[in-house]
From TrEMBL:
One of its GO terms (molecular function) is DNA-binding transcription factor activity. This is TetR family transcriptional regulator. PANTHER family: HTH-TYPE TRANSCRIPTIONAL REGULATOR BETI (PTHR30055:SF234), HTH-TYPE TRANSCRIPTIONAL REGULATOR RUTR (PTHR30055). Residues 34-53 bind DNA. The keyword Transcription regulation applies. It holds the Pfam family TetR_N. It comes from the Bacteria. It comes from Rhodococcus oxybenzonivorans. InterPro entries: Homeodomain-like_sf, HTH-type_TetR-like_transc_reg, HTH_TetR, Tet_transcr_reg_TetR-rel_C_sf. Residues 11-71 form the HTH tetR-type domain. Gene3D superfamilies: Homeodomain-like (1.10.10.60), Tetracycline Repressor, domain 2 (1.10.357.10).
Length: 194
């Protein structure tokens, strides 16, 4: 009997599995989980997991990529309709903080301890800093911000984003990620306002 597949079903199913995998990892971390445990928790077979990646290490890396892709889409859709450079930077950094609130301490510790996933996170931090730099450049060009060295401001943001994501800011100030990003946005935009 010929199997009929609906167009897009495999892609949809793959996305659903990665979404569930990301949610599991964000809540509990991933270092302690075996492939058998992951399959059981996702209610799928190990062979299904192997359609996503060839090993647990690759699965973790791909799930981390999926998380940051999903977070980026959420952040960008959040700021799409916002006008004004100051408001866009504030909304962007707040949305980044919101996207990270789902990440448990265990996930962040596992992420930091696993070089392939940490590399994905560091790359995404650099991309986010570049996005902030572009928003600052737009604000300078539009007269909303004084003429600042946008690369320096972006480097400052990058440094703080890393400290926030590594929980250094929370440990030293008690601020959760979302509040830390809002404070960063307020300090940054007030400091560069025209």
């Amino acid at each position: 009997m010929e199997q009929i597949t609906r167009p897009g079903f495999a892609t949809r199913r793959r996305t659903q599995l990665f979404d569930a995998l990301v949610d599991l990892f964000l809540a509990e971390g991933f270092a302690h989980l075996t492939l058998d445990e992951i399959a059981a928790r996702l209610r799928c077979s190990k062979s299904t997991l192997y359609t996503l990646a060839d090993s647990k290490e690759q699965l973790v890396r791909e799930a981390t990529v999926h998380f940051f892709r999903r977070a980026t889409e959420d952040v960008e859709s959040h700021i799409a309709e916002i006008n004004g450079a100051r408001e866009r930077i504030s909304a962007y950094l707040s949305a980044v903080g919101t996207a990270l609130t789902a990440a448990s301490d265990q996930f962040m510790a596992d992420l930091d301890a696993f070089p392939p996933a940490r590399e994905v996170y560091e790359q995404n931090t650099q991309i986010a800093a570049g996005r902030v730099k572009a928003l600052i450049d737009d604000g300078v060009a539009g007269g909303d911000f004084r003429d600042v060295h946008a690369a320096f401001a972006a480097d400052l943001v990058t440094t703080m984003m890393v400290r926030i994501q590594q929980r250094g800011v929370r440990d030293s100030t008690g601020l959760d990620d979302a509040h830390a990003y809002r404070e960063l946005a307020a300090i940054l935009t007030a400091g560069i306002s025209a």
